[in-house]
Amino acid sequence: MKHISILVPKGAILGSLEGSRQLLTQVNEFMKYRGAPPLFKVQLVGLTKETKLSGGSFTAHADLLIDEVKKTDLIIIPAVDGDIQEALEANREFIPWITKHYKNGSEVASLCLGAFILASTGLIDGRKCATHWMAANQFRKMFPDVNLVTEQIITDEQGTYSSGGAFSYQNLILYIIEKYAGRELAILSAKVFAIEIDRQNQSPFIMFQGQKEHSDESIKHAQEFIENNFQEKITVDELASMLALGRRNLERRFKKATSNTVVEYIQRVKIEAAKKSFETTRKNINEIMYDVGYNDTKAFRTVFRKITGLSPIEYRSKYNKEAIVV
Fold first, then answer.
1. Which among 181, 205, 229 is the end of a domain?
2. Distance (Å, rounded) from C-alpha 219 to C-alpha 210?
3. Rounded to whole angstroms, how far apart are CA atoms 41 and 51?
4. Cβ(111)–Cβ(14) under 8 Å?
5. Residues 177 and 281 in one domain
6. Nearest 5 degrees, angle CA 112-CA 116-CA 121?
7. Residue 173: per-residue pLDDT
8. Euclidean distance between CA atoms 21 and 17, whole angstroms
9. Residue 201: closest CA among 150, 163, 152, 134
């Protein structure tokens, strides 16, 4: 039987905590129905017996305190809400505990913003990690040694797992169920809870928010120029000349400040504008392509799919049912 410890961080979001518990304990119900023993022992583990959740709207009762857990096979870190720095400070006692159990053979999974707690342990330095796309800029700033993959729903590397934003935690729990209990029970769980299994990409949900939480005023000026002139063909040389910077110096500073190359930033701004048009207008693909400064259909489709994970037609069909698809 696998022992699973679901942490109860101070300020945890109830959904990812209780949702994980429900999914995992339901597997035991399936086994009971078959006349078989349970596969998981699921316990809530806290710093105190009672912990306020979701801004104080709910209270969770821990089965065990952290010093009462002698050994566990999997630690699940739910999402937390509010100010991240405050959440990390309030839950700092979990950090050495997680590290100790990982070194003793436990696996560790973070759900959504629980990635900040996982990253604070240092266990995923140099490894891939997913979190909510809205927190990507802050995560990169706080944990530059972690390879943040904003487009992925799930990461699995050396006994550490993570999931993307919000309800993506369901896909990670299904993934863990499949890994621990087999594909059949994962599919059964997905059907009972009406979850789309094997969803691997959160790119269609990402809204690009230019990284401006830096102090390089020249780069901020470049960003603003790109955002105000995305309809035009903007080149790196043009930006370098405008800012009186050498091209290599501009590219180095831009990447350091925004975590994007200049070309990537231009593409993301253009595609974000195209996405909004697909969501809200009846313009056809060529019209939108020209509006955001592309004149090569193949290039536009290629970049659009690279950033969103969908073709322009697929994106429009998903987010604008009333639009005329062409």
1. 205
2. 11
3. 21
4. no
5. no
6. 130
7. 96
8. 6
9. 152
223's tokens: 């960003």
Sorted by sequence, the CB contacts under 8 Å of residue 295 that are 6+ apart come out as: 289
Q: Compute mean pLDDT per 10 residues along the chain, 326 residues long, and list them.
A: 97 93 96 95 97 88 97 97 93 98 97 96 95 90 92 89 90 94 92 84 69 87 91 92 94 91 93 90 92 94 92 89 56
Q: Which helix (H) or strand (E) holds 24?
A: helix 14-33
| Boundary (domain end) residue, out of 205, 226, 244 | 205
CB 202 within 8 A of CB 170: no
Instruction: Indicate the SS3 state at residue 227.
Output: helix
Q: What's the rounded Cα separation, in Å, for the pair 235 and 247?
A: 10
Same domain, 35 and 127: yes
**What pLDDT, on a 0 to 100 scale, did the predictor assign at position 326?**
44
Q: For residues 317 and 322, give the distance between their C-alpha atoms in angstroms, rounded to a whole number.
A: 9
Which H or E element spans position 136? Answer: helix 136-142
Q: Could you give the maximum distance between any two Cα atoms of the chain, in Å? A: 75
Cα dihedral 243→248→250→252 (10° resolution): -170
Return the CATH number at 292.
Answer: 1.10.10.60
* 109 in any annotated domain: yes
How much is the pTM?
0.71
* Secondary structure tally for the chain: helices H, strands E: 14, 11
Number of domains in the chain: 2
Q: Please answer whether residues 109 and 75 qualify as being in contact, where contact means their C-beta atoms are separated by less than 8 angstroms.
A: yes
Tell me the DSSP string of 36-87: ---SEEEEEEESSSEEEEGGGTEEEE-SEEGGG----SEEEE--B-S-HHHH
Domain of 296, in residue numbers: 217-319
Q: What is the pLDDT of residue 325?
A: 46
Look-up of token digits 């505990």: 97
* Amino acid identity for residue 31 in this structure: M
Six-digit token string for 249: 């110096």
d(CA 78, CA 61): 15
